[in-house]
Amino acid sequence: MLSNKRILVGITGGIAAYKSAEIVRSLRHEGAEVRVIMTKAAKEFISPLTLQALSGNRVHSELINADAEAGMGHIELAKWADIVLIAPATANFIADMTCGKADSLLGSVNLATNAHILIAPAMNQAMWKSAANQTNISHLERRGVQLIGPEEGPQACGDFGVGRMAQNTEIVKSVSEQFKVQTLRSKKVVITAGPTREAIDPVRYITNRSSGKMGYAMAEAAIDAGAHVTLISGPVAISSPERCYVINVETAHEMYKASLTACVGADVFIGAAAVADYRCETVSSKKIKRTADTITLNFKKNVDILTEIRRANKNLYLVGFAAETENIKENGYEKLRSKKLNAIVTNDVARADVGFDSDENEVYWMTQRSVTHINKKLKEKIARDLIANIANEIIAIS
Ligand code: PMT
C-alpha cells in the first residue's frame, strides 16, 4: 500500500515518543520511504540514533543548521513529503501549529508543505479536554488537518481518560488510507449479506450456515473504494461496517423487497447473501406439538432476487455469488447466464476451510468473457480484489 510513498514523520516531546520508533518501522515495512523530524523536546524521550536506524535516513531537527540546509533544507523536506504525520503531537505543538509558529524545523515544514497533515495527539486527559486545546484542535480540523485518536485509557501519569496516542496499527492504517484509489467514488452500491430465515412456526425456522463475513467484507471494500453502500443483511453476529446504510431483514421476501427499493438509482448490486430458495407453504401460528412420529413440511419456491432485480434494472451492474459443492465453474456459469448477471463469484461450500463461516475464501471471478481464479486468502482481501474487478468492468463498459 505504501510502496514508494514518502512519509515525513514529525516527533514531538511527549512520553508516547517511544512508540514512534515502531510506527517508523511499520511504515518502512509497508514500503514507504520515511524521513524523521524531531523537536528538541522529542530528543529527551527517544534517541535520534534509533529513528535514524529505523528510517534508514539521517534524522532532521535543527532549523538553523548550514550542514542540514545544504543536505535537505526545510523547504525541500516540505516539498518531498507526500504525507506529514506528527506522532505524538503534544498540546504545546498543537498550539504552535494553530498559531502557525515557525521557530522549529517541524513548525516551518508544516507551514511550507502542501502535503496532507495527520496528527496523533498524546497528552494528559485534562490537557486534552481543556478549552484552549479543544479550540486549537477545531481550528486545525477546519484547516484540513486530520486527527488520529486520541484514545481513552490509563495514562503514564496515572490518570484515566481520553489523551493516549492512538494505537500504532491505527496510525499506520490512517496513513495508508490516504493513498487508496477510490475506484467506486460516488457509486451507489447495494450488497446483500448473511443468511435468511424462513419460519416454520413461532419458535422454529429454516436457515443456513452463512455468517455474513463475505458480504460484510464486500461492503467494507466498496466503502473504502469510495462507494455509497447500502447493506441488506440477514441475521448475523458480526458488527456492521461504519459509513454505510444497513437494512436488517429476516426472510427472503423481506430481502427481496428491501433490495428492490434500494436498487432505485443504484449502479451496482452484489448478491452475497445465502438466500433461502424455499419457504414453508404454511407457517403454523402455534408451536407444532411433539405428538406425531413424523411430520411433513411443504415448501414453496421463493422469488429469485437477482432475477427480479435484473428485470427491474436493465443497466445495473449485477454480481451474484454461487455457493457450489460440485462442478463449481460450470454451475456458476449457468447461474451467470440464467440470471442475466454481469459477473458471478463462485465458491466451493463443501470445503471446511473456505466458503461458509470461515475467515478465508477461494473463488472464481467469472464474466461472460473470462474466468479468473483468486487464491485462498482472507475474505477482506478477496473482497478487495473483487471490488477492483467490478470497478474495472464498470470503467470498461462506461
Ligand atoms: O456468509 P459467509 O459465512 O461469509 O459465507 C459466504 C457465502 C458462502 C454465503 C458467499 O460466499 C456465497 O456464496 N453467497 C451466495 C450463496 C447462495 O445463495 O448461493 P446460490 O448459488 O444458492 O445462489 C446464487 C445467487 O443467487 C446468489 O447471489 C444468491 O444471493 C442469489 N439468490 C439465491 C436465491 C434467491 N431466492 N434469490 C437470489 O437472488
Key structural traits:
398 residues; alpha/beta; Rossmann fold; 2 domains; 5-stranded parallel beta sheet; 15 helices; elongated; binds ligand PMT
Short recap of the structure:
The protein is of the alpha/beta class. The chain has helices spanning 17-29, 42-45, 48-55, 66-72, 74-80, 91-99, 105-112, 125-129, 131-142, 168-177, 213-224, 252-262, 305-312, 328-338, 379-397; strands spanning 6-11, 33-38, 83-89, 116-121, 146-147, 151-154, 160-164, 188-193, 198-201, 204-206, 228-233, 245-248, 268-271, 278-280, 299-301, 317-324, 343-348, 360-367, 371-378. Strand 16, helix 14 and strand 17 form a beta-alpha-beta unit.
Description of the molecule:
- There is one protein chain.
- By secondary structure, the protein is of the alpha/beta class.
- It has two domains: 6-177, Flavin prenyltransferase-like (Rossmann fold), CATH 3.40.50; 188-397, 3-Layer(aba) Sandwich (Rossmann fold), CATH 3.40.50.10300.
- The chain contains 15 helices and 19 strands.
- The chain has helices at residues 17-29, 42-45, 48-55, 66-72, 74-80, 91-99, 105-112, 125-129, 131-142, 168-177, 213-224, 252-262, 305-312, 328-338, 379-397, and strands at 6-11, 33-38, 83-89, 116-121, 146-147, 151-154, 160-164, 188-193, 198-201, 204-206, 228-233, 245-248, 268-271, 278-280, 299-301, 317-324, 343-348, 360-367, 371-378.
- The strands form five sheets. An eight-stranded mixed sheet has the order 12-11-8-13-16-17-18-19, sandwiched between helices.
- Helix 6 (91-99) crosses helix 9 (131-142) and helix 11 packs across helix 15 (379-397).
- The longest helix has 19 residues, at 379-397.
- It is elongated and about 90 Å long.
- Bound molecules: ligand PMT.
- Ligand PMT is lined by residues 192, 194, 210-215, 252, 271-275, 277, 302, 304-306, 320-323, 335, 347, 349, 355-357.
- The site of ligand PMT has 29 residues, from helix 11, helix 13 and strand 16.
